[in-house]
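The data layer described in this paper is built around a simple, fixed record for each protein. Such a record has a labelled line for the sequence and another for the backbone structure tokens. For reference, a complete record is included directly beneath this paragraph.
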Amino acid sequence: MNGPYKPGTPCWIDLMVPDQQAALDFYCDLFGWQGEIGPAETGGYSVCTLKGKPVAGIMKAMNPDGTLPDPMPPTVWTTYLSTDGIDATLKSVTDAGGNVMMGPMDVMDLGRMAVLADPTGAVVGLWQPGSFDGAGIVNEHGALIWSELSTGDTDAAAAFYSAVLPISPAASQMPGAEGYVEFKVAGRAVAGMMDLASMPAGVPPHWQPYFHVDDVDSVQAAAVRAGGSVMAPAFDMAAGRMAVLADPQGGVFSVITASAPEQPA
């Protein structure tokens, strides 16, 4: 990726965990990343890289004053949507029924961030780039390829995201993906949305990252050997072969070997 992401496009992901070094060891081994605990002035935030380009962040769960949370929050991946004006976007968020959970705040000269909850309860971040645009590699082995919202009210979520960012929700035309919604930016599908009804009872609304891998089954096996768990074993679906996994601290993510789209005859 060269240059900023179009507003509305997922541009970055990060993970908040109780044991930062353990998470770094797990993901670096699984995906071939490089990463280490960052400097104190950034709260130890780790920017993990692949081929020298940033792909994801990992941070230790802590309160703004540096103390440990009690109780400790769940381990979760946060997806960040790009915006070219975070203050105006946040006003739209509150006008459309969302809640601002954190921010906006400056992250040195890198950019400005905020975290919000949409009206259905899913948490997502916003990123206004400064010197840092977001992920420098996507759609390659070990890098982000897709972001997906699971929610109990797809109509409300579609209305919200299209009101706060230049996102156009549209029913997927992919064979076998009936009922799936694509979020489009400038005519290009950048994320997806599905109904929570297809998931086990009790799963809350959430955004989830998908990482592209060359071999889903071998990555699934490697995750298990490293102490991770399998939420949905490798299976074939409309967009390719995928699995839903959890790291040893409970962070859930998907891996997929995406199939090339069929070309018209």
Notes: The mean pLDDT is 93.
